[in-house]
Write a structure and sequence with these properties.
11 helices; alpha+beta; FAD/NAD(P)-binding domain; FAD-dep_Monooxygenase_BioMet
Length: 420
Amino acid sequence: MRLVKLLVRPDASSTKLGWSTYAQMTTPEGQHLASNPDHKNKSENIMSAENKVLIVGGGIGGLCAAIALRRKGVAVDLVELKAEWTVYGVGIIQQSNVVREMAKLGVLDGYLDAAYAFEDVTINTTSGQQLARIPGQRLAGPEYPANVGISRLALHKVLSETAIELGTQVRLGLSVETLNEDADGVNVQFTDGTQGRYSLVVGADGLFSKVRGLLFGDKYQPRFTGQSVWRYNFPRTAEIDHLANYMGPAGNAGLVPLADNLMYMFVTSHEPNNPWMDKSVLATEMRKRLSGFEGLIGELREQITDGEQVVYKPLEVVFVDEPWYRGRVLLIGDAAHATTPHLGQGAGMAIEDAVVLSEELTAGGSLEQQLQRFMARRFERCKYIAESSVLAGDKEIAHDREFDRIGLVKQMLARTAEPI
């Protein structure tokens, strides 16, 4: 028997699982968002113990795992440490392999309604001269787009509402405190004093994963890469109907369409000492990082005036270089393989994890065999994305003019288009 303890802040107690009103994705700590009690399991759940999976973390990976498992008829509880289920309000690039997985999750129509569809990616000089236009592949089917840009708020709304509608029981403002595993299941003590028993615990709790600490101690810690990324929303201009990348003197910038009237800019920068940035200086500092750019980026630079709207994030990575599970506890997404945004695939790998996990958990065999198959399909693919993304950032820091960024992007698109 294995007993491990996780130290987190205490939260208000909730005595038992139950229903409450689902309104604005926020509840008092430790309480519930309602799932749909009328939703019936569509297939037999072959898992043992209490025939239920616990997902720790309500971000993109955790929500997609909940949706995928509920589609397969697996009972799911999801806990999220934040009492207010919020995400930061910029956008995200989702490429053709992600659109394919969204189709498998059964959320494609609502997802596309909330997104901006586009086909191509361009790579441009600092002044805006086009170096390459890379066409996308319509992996979800000829009637669906190759790529989309979507605001994180819109994506969260689509995924959270779908997960709840399918019957996921969601609780906010708490996490796991202890995991006590035996041969048939895992007894979980939550930080609000409640308990549960599960066939499998899935740690989808991000870069600073508590579940990863339970499994591996301090062996795998986030590492700062030397770069940060800056993001800012703008009204969309007519020429940004695709993902436009700009190769800068010290970092790369880009413009991503999110809706008919919205786009966002990003720029990476070398920040060797990982400085803390007060919001009062963010607008000025972001403009400085864009000082070498001309053309549209240069024009937009002068419109960056509100530090409250700048999203600044140091780029940190972690990769668990061994099986992502021990016994009945598994890591997915950033908890196992957090990387940088240089190839736009971080969230995509988490979404793929979720779909593959649901497929393997319902494909027969013992849990050990199911998780081994999951790892066989995920490990090398995620490692390639993690290492290639970090490489791209390292080459930016080194000002390596010989680095073939266009070739790397083309290679990545070919690799991610392959069946998983």
